[in-house]
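Suppose a colleague, Dr. K., hands you the sequence of a protein chain of 338 amino acids and asks what its three-dimensional shape might be. Before reaching for any lab equipment, you can write down a predicted structure in token form. Begin with the sequence itself:
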Amino acid sequence: MVQEKAKAPQPPAPKTPAQVRRSSAARAVTLIGDRWTLLVLYAAFMGVKRFDGFAAMTGVARSLLTDRLKRLETGGVLERWLYQERPPRHEYRLTAMGRDLYASALMLLGWEMRWRFDPDCPSHRIVHQTCGKPLKPILVCKACGEAVKARDVTLTSGPGAGLEPAPRARHSRRASRDDAGGSPLHPMLERGVEVLGDRWTAHVLAGAFYGLRRFKDFQAELQVASNILTDRLDRLVERGMLERVVYQERPARSEYRLTREGRDFFPVIAALMAWGDRWLARSEGYPEILTHKCGARLEPEARCGACGGAADVGNTRLDAPPLGELSPPATDPRSARG
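The predicted structure, expressed as tokens, is then:
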């Protein structure tokens, strides 16, 4: 009997990358939705430019800080400037793209202040220099001037609508200050960073604004592992931004709905979407269109709630030293070389 020659094992077929909906907000979160990236941006908005200054303010490990600065430079948010030739030394400055993120930062601050205002939190004592009053940042529709609320906005597909490969996962668990030994933040700043500074938490919350309610729908939209999705949903329920509502008793089934506090996060999402449209849109155009109830395409603007004037990085200031908020260890020698 002639034995047939065994066939050589075939290599496995290449895995097709998961596809997700194109979204400017999702692209923005993928770029900046990381705890340490957000803290670097916070420091940059406070005027920090040099490496040791970033290390002192954020408390992040130097290797991790190098990575985040490089990531923001590659993304176009920061740029390096040579300030000393011998030996060569560089500083990091916000680009026009980076400064344009300030509206999103103000919306995150406004959300914190509306729901957990704390007069002892330095970020909650920001001043609008144009009118001299404490800033209560709001997002308004440029066309009609009304405050932007989720219920007043409709979403339709834009010229760049479609699917794109899901972003590569960086880690599966929520980032925390324990990951790199960072200094504790003020509880209010910590709360905002916890929501926007974890990419999956921010994606899940954005998905809720798309109308997703059930676990399987979140998973299909986001292409996220079950254990990660379970963790982020539980966390958002714990934080009061989602509520778990039973829609079927036998077997027990629940869905997740935005609470008032969760819906009030919409200006952050809208500001990030607008920023992503301006800076991250590709040749096919922006993926989605937000239309305000006034009938105009939503072009959000950050304003001062007291005087109605524009609020930007050039006309706002903290009414307290920013280092007091992040409280870096006084014994850390890095804090003396900003």
